[in-house]
Amino acid sequence: MKKSTIYILSAALIIFIGLFILHPLSGNILTSSYESKEPIGTISKMMMKLGKPDTVQPTNLQHIEHIIINGSGKGQRGFIEIRQGDENQIWKAKTPYLATLSSKIEGNTIIINETNDSYFNLHLSLASPSIKSITLNNTSFYCDVIAQGESQVTMPQINVGKNGTLNIRTGTDRQQMLLSKLKIEAKEESIVKLENLKIQDLNATLTNARMDLSPNLIADSVNINLQGLSHVIRPRDSKNISVFNLTGETAYYDARYPKK
Fold first, then answer.
1. What pLDDT was estimated at residue 56?
2. Residues 11 and 62 occupy one common structural domain
3. Both 36 and 135 in a single domain?
4. Do the Cβ atoms of 121 and 147 come closer than 8 Å?
5. What is the pLDDT of residue 205?
6. pLDDT at residue 30, as a whole number
7. What is the CA radius of gyration of the chain?
8. CA atoms within 13 Å, Cβ hemisphere of 24
9. Tell me, what's the pLDDT at 26?
């Protein structure tokens, strides 16, 4: 047997052991999806039978108006799914069960500290517009927005703090989501990306921050106020944005996006 064949077989064996044996034994059971909790592979099925059912319950957000999520910094990745539901609540998922959410409540604000995990997965269910803002600090987030049927989604104001990145998009394998209004504030070297969304009115304030508008973003009205060294990256001749207005300190933008 050639040495190259031996190397390939050894690498395949190592990958198999890592994915289907060591990964489940570490407590992370592989499932087809969080909702179905259907285990993938023999080891995951065995670990599922030995595991305990969910004992952690979602955190109820009754009387909560503001959500603050603090990360640990460089290299950390967070995922947050925002969907319509029967009540306002948030939970942390660790396949296939719920995980304990490190949080505290101060008045009408819940503060969630995700500083121990390099990756975390949060789910936010919204039944009413009583949640007024979500603030994301010190980490990189992917935000999937999911609606029920053809209905629109009313989003809280999104604030992105220093050195944060946020990618807001329609949930995977779904048609473009229609947002009636979206208000964003981004600060201090943060980056916000919007893709695969339909927005009636987008209003944003950038302070030394950047916003990327993807070619597949459709919007009736986009109004962005620039402060400091802020920039907007967008397709120059896009017909998907009906009205595009920039206000504030636009010198930095104009220097990098000269008019024809």
1. 74
2. no
3. no
4. no
5. 98
6. 46
7. 21
8. 21
9. 45
> DSSP of 38-103, one letter per residue?
-B-SHHHHHHHHHSPPP---PEE-TT--EEEEE---TT-EEEEEEEE-SS-EEEEEETTEEE---E
What's the pTM value of the predicted model, to 2 decimals?
Answer: 0.77
Judgement on whether residues 22 and 91 belong to the same structural domain of the protein: no
**In terms of domains, do 47 and 142 share one?**
no
The vertex-124 CA angle with 120 and 125, nearest 5°, equals 155
Amino acid making up residue 220: D
CA distance 190 to 239: 27
Which residues does residue 192 pair with via DSSP β-bridges, in sequence order?
Answer: 166, 211
In this structure, the answer to whether residues 196 and 129 fall within a common structural domain is: yes
| CATH code assigned at 91 | 2.160.20
| Together in a domain, 111 and 62 | yes
The answer to whether 215 and 233 are in contact (CB under 8 A) is no
pLDDT computed for residue 29 by the predictor: 47
Phi then psi for residue 224, to 5 deg, are: -125, 125
The answer on 10 and 123 residing in a single domain is: no
Count of structural domains, the chain: 2
Amino acid at 210: R
Average pLDDT, consecutive stretches of 10 residues, N- to C-terminus, the chain (260 residues): 64 57 47 50 51 70 93 83 86 78 93 85 86 90 74 82 86 65 93 91 96 92 96 86 94 81
Phi/psi at 8 (5° precision): -65, -45
Q: In the listed set 51, 66, 88, which residue is the last one of a domain according to the structure?
A: 51
Mark whether 27 and 59 lie in a shared domain. Answer: no
